[in-house]
């Protein structure tokens, strides 16, 4: 198994945890909010708490979807029968396009729904912009200068950014779950 395959498989563990955050929303918020969880607009969100919940749901779904799409595209481009440098260029370019599409999707979904961006949404967009910088550095170093010494630093940065994004996404569900159990203890 190559290092790329190992990272690909380990990435599915992160995606599994991202999916669990979506399941948490479906189990805890869907019974209360029904279909407004998916389709609420600004006039339906009457409190800051509802804006935060909807924003965190948007960011959880978008992160999972674009993480899955990005990893599949990346794995596909790395296994194409191109020469090494064109494959590397296509890989980093595809990852950059995926990251830009993620930011655009998050911003558009918040705009279309009239939802204020939560702390988690701001952090995930910021982390994605940081990922874009890392990808651009790698594209330049590996794709155009054939310089591969930054690969360990790149892998470390990607894992730190992905795990930080996961922690940011889990912040809301963990806080809400803790508040739920704390309120049950007081009753």
Could you explain the architecture of this structure?
The longest helix has 36 residues, at 151-186. It contains seven helices and no strands. By secondary structure, it is an all-alpha fold. Helices cover 84% and strands 0% of the residues. It has one domain (11-186): Four Helix Bundle (Hemerythrin (Met), subunit A). It has helices at residues 3-28, 30-33, 36-39, 48-78, 84-113, 119-144, 151-186. 25% of the residues are buried. Keywords: Membrane, Transmembrane, Transmembrane helix. The chain crosses the membrane at residues 6-27, 55-78, 90-112, 124-141, 153-174.
What's the quick description here?
By secondary structure, the chain is mainly alpha-helical. It has seven helices and no strands.
- Proportion in helices: over 70%
Instruction: State which percent range the strand residues make up.
Output: under 5%
Topology pattern, helix = H, strand = E: HHHHHHH
Q: Rg from C-alpha positions?
A: 19 Å
Mean pLDDT: 90
Structural class: mainly alpha
The tally of structural domains comes to: 1
- Quaternary state of this entry equals single chain
Question: Under the CATH scheme, which architecture would be assigned?
Answer: Up-down Bundle
Give me the count of strands. Answer: 0
Q: Which consecutive residue ranges, at least 5 long each, have pLDDT under 50?
A: none
| Coarse morphology | elongated
How many strands, what sense, and barrel or not for the largest sheet? none
Distance between the amino and carboxyl termini = 54 Å
CATH topological fold name? Four Helix Bundle (Hemerythrin (Met), subunit A)
CATH top-level class: Mainly Alpha
What is the count of helical runs? 7
Keywords: Membrane, Transmembrane, Transmembrane helix
Transmembrane segments: 6-27, 55-78, 90-112, 124-141, 153-174
